[in-house]
Every structure is written in C-alpha cells, then in structure tokens.
Amino acid sequence: MAFIKExxxxxxxxxxxxxxxxxxxxxxxxxxxxxxxxxxxQKEDKNQYEKHDFMPGEKxxxxxxxxxxxxxxxxxxxxRCNFTCQQCGKSFFHQRNLTVHMRIHTGEKPYTxxxxxxxxxQKGSLKVHMRVHTGExxFTCQQCGKSFSRNGNLKVHMRIHTRExxFTCQQCGKCFTQKGSLKVHMRIHTGExxFTCQQCGKSFxxxxxxxxxxxxxxxxxxxxxxxxxxxFKFTRALNEHTRIHSKENCFICHQCGSSFTDKKHLKNHxxxxxxxxxxxxxxxxxxxxNKGNLEAHRRVHTGEKPFTCLQCGKCFTLKGNLxxxxxxHTGEKPFSCLQCGKSFALKGNLxxxxxxHTGERPYxxxxxxxxxxNNKDLxxxxxxxxxxxxxxx
Length: 393
Known about the structure:
Strand content: 5-15%
CATH architecture of the domain at 168-274: 2-Layer Sandwich
CATH superfamily of the domain at 168-274: Classic Zinc Finger
CATH class of the domain at 168-274: Alpha Beta
CATH topology of the domain at 168-274: Double Stranded RNA Binding Domain
Number of helices: 14
C-alpha cells in the first residue's frame, strides 16, 4: 500500500512524530469530552422525539396540521427544558443529564479503568476506553479492512481514501484531516509553546514532546525490548529498534534499493543521491541536509554547549556526545566483541579491536610502508623516522 504523506514534515524532528500520531493524549481527551457532550445531546433529542412521536395506527396529518404540530412541539420543547446549567447556560430535559453535564465543569470523573487508572465522566466512555485493553475494534474500514475502536476514528481514517482535508490553515493554506492537527500546526505560526517543563522552564508545542523531554532529567528509560532487554526513552525508538530483530525494512530507496527501518533515515539517504542540502549556515555558507544538523553546526560559531553532564559538569555541543560521555560514569560498555567477549564504550574502539582478529592494518607508513591497526600507533612510529633524521644532523 502506498504510504500516505504525513501532514507535519516541516515540524522539528524532536516533535514531528507527535503531530503525526493524531490520537495523542491531548487530542484523545478532547475527543472523549466532545463525544460525551454529543452523547448527552443525542439522549436529549431521543427523549424529546420519543415523547412526541406518533402512536401506531394514527392517521397521517395534513401539511398545515403538521406545521402547527411542529410549532407546538417546539414550544413544548422550550417549556420542558427547565434544567439549566448555571455556568454555561445549556438546558436539559432531565435532571440526570444536567448532573452528568456538570462533571465537565467540576472535573469529576467517577468511572475509573481498573487496568490503567484513567477516569471518565460517563460509564459509556469507560466502556469505549476498555477496547484499548481488550483490543476490540468493532469499526472496520470497508476499503482497506483497517479496524478502529471508535467510530470517530474510522470517520477520520476515511478521509485518507476520500482525500478530504477539511481543516485549512488560513496563513499558509496547508490542509489537515483533523481539527486538532490544525490547532497544533497553528503553533508554528503563533510561536505558542503551552507545555512547560517545571524543572528547567523549557517550553514545547506538543505535550508528547514535553513528556519525552522530562526523561532527560530523570534518565528514565521505561520502554524495554522484550527480545534483548535494551531500554529506550521513547516508544518510537523502541519501535525502530524492534525492526532490527524482525529484519523488517519498511522504507526502501527506489534509486539504489537500500532499505531502512526508519523513514527519516531513508529521507536523509535520498539526499545523497540528489545532493540536496537545503539548509544553509549564514555565518560560513555551509549547507546541511536537515534543520537539526544546521542547528548543531551553528554551535561551532556560537560556542553554545547546551548538553551538560550532571555528574561532572562537562558540557557538549551534541546530545549524542553527552550520552557517550556518560558511559565513563556508568561504566556501560554496550559494544562487545563476538569473538573474545571484550566490551567497549565506543563503537569505533570495537572496530579497531576487531582488526586484531582479522589481521587488518589499514594505516601505512609512507616512508617504510610498515602497517598498523590504528592511527595512534602509526603516529608513534612516524616519530621514530623524525628522530633518526634529527640524529643524522
């Protein structure tokens, strides 16, 4: 099946995947609240309709009589809506519906899931939520067979087939299948970052990005690979990692046939073929493949080192360098030699070590053609030639 173009490719790499996942916690809460409100309205309409419906066997009315009945029914509806919310002015036929509605204002959620502890305003909403745990997906797309736990999610999904994108950004014209996606997109134009870290004050456009950021403070890696035990900070990182075990390569380069477990890696790879480097540094004119690389490069000019080791205070320009440095404190050596079992903190050190087993010596002395396994040994050897020349003179 052809891949559907994501709506948010221009968002920062760190935050992009949250926009793509339209069922985020923030949007899910809004959907549940909206559905619960709609449920109340439907119940009200149903009750009103049932109270004024025609009895079986009743003769059909004339057009004029029908209009009178409609006006009379509307008048009765107005008179019978005598349960009004004092906070928003919404009216209800029954006290019980007003009571349920008030929970939207009070925040009361009396129905709690025994599996995960999440709470809901209505019992029906809890019932729908339970499908997350049971895996039940009763709403199926007739075109591709994909199933969903909510009818609303199926309706949104159908827009993929119909290519309907009813929500349009008034500033740039970009279209979205969901109103929530448009709302998140608008933060690019407004610069709004409503989700703030309480520890360092850094703000984010998306709630998911804030949750990921918090892990940098706690060093927590809650997502565990069941096959090898490796832990990850983010679910997306775990999902990418599991493809290594399954040998799954979903993203294939059509020019050379190379396959990748992540779409981002494929996108960066394709730029090697087309030579595209659209992000230019205004200081030195260097071009970079993506925005993240450009931001990292700019730190060469600014001297900024935003990633700090909490144990020794050493600062780094790249987060990856900080992660490598932390292994000095933790003693972690994730790269192991399969032949002798020796472990290393750096992948490069393992590669140099493997030359002891393979006999490879890629570093050659230009004066005597003697070969070495690493550059350090070659430099040490080169000094012997320099000393010999000094002795001769």
